[in-house]
Amino acid sequence: NLQSTKTLTNGIEMPRLGLGVYKMTERNETLQAIDKALKFGYRAIDTASLYGNEEEVGEAIRYSGVKREDIFVTTKVWNNDQGYDETLRAFEVSLKKLNMDYLDLYLTHWAVPETFEETYRAIERLYDEKLIRATGVSNHHEHHLQKLLAKANIQPMVNQVEVHPYLQQNNLRAYCSEHDIAVTAWSPLGRGGVLDNAVITKIGQEIGKTAAQVVLRWHLQRDTLIIPKSVTPSRIEENAQVFDFELSLAQMDQIAALNRNERFGQDPDNFKFNF
Ligand code: NAD
């Protein structure tokens, strides 16, 4: 069912499907995409201060007719706002832009070596002050998480990283699972770049599903949360139709064999500001 959730360590239910809104820069396009997604049953939106569309996200939610408390809203602190006080200030700005009085999840966008630990401490404080319902990070490798876990009062509940059939992140997933950290896949479709793969399209033909649906279902069966992005209504709908069928073990194995550690985005250990 579309409302399927994963229970985070603190008992909060996080929708397994959300709409990613990276690169939605045109106001009407963003409002329209979120409106459609909520009509099709999405109950989570993934944004970031970097995306420059927090105002539109807030606006679309307010006009949707869906109650604020029924939608899971995630945003992220950008790299040049990191640090303890800086993060608290950046959060306030995001909250104002979204025009909300709390957020569901706040993430460190990338593990900037000098500041990611202080940044997470600020996220813990926001949680203590009940301004966010869950804590988390993005683009953290196992070695980053180890540092956070060594000091954390509240352990990160979510790690959002690049995952798709060409970058399956099996070691990081195992580590997160051991520590009860939910994994969200960004670029779950490899920015569209895995959809022409012959193995994936063949599985789709076998079961009468599109390549995108096969890939999104593969994530779900590996207990990974998904935030596919699209501004096209038919695709937004298609990407949500992934809760009423199952891939066989043989099909899961065929996709497992496609792993080749290929990134479409950047490596968290080697982040370049200008991309
Ligand atoms: P994605 O894998 O979701 O791919 C999106 C692209 O795939 C679309 O632009 C479209 O071209 C294509 N597509 C989508 N649905 C399709 C369908 N049904 N059929 C055919 N093509 C389809 O890539 P993404 O946008 O990079 O990632 C999704 C979300 O993840 C972002 O919007 C953002 O919210 C988040 N993200 C986070 C980070 C981070 O650093 N934390 C980085 C990148 C993305």
TrEMBL record:
A Pfam family that the UniProt record links to this protein: Aldo_ket_red
Presence of the UniProt keyword Membrane in the record: no
Residues of the NADP-dependent oxidoreductase domain: 20-259
Assigned keywords, A-Z: NADP, Oxidoreductase
Domain of life: Bacteria
Family matches, as InterPro entries: AKR, Aldo/ket_reductase_CS, NAD(P)_OxRdtase_dom_sf, NADP_OxRdtase_dom
S-adenosyl-L-methionine found in the keyword field: no
PANTHER family xrefs: 2,5-DIKETO-D-GLUCONIC ACID REDUCTASE, NADP-DEPENDENT OXIDOREDUCTASE DOMAIN-CONTAINING PROTEIN
Family: Belongs to the aldo/keto reductase family.
Protein name: Aldo/keto reductase
Source organism (scientific name): Lysinibacillus pakistanensis
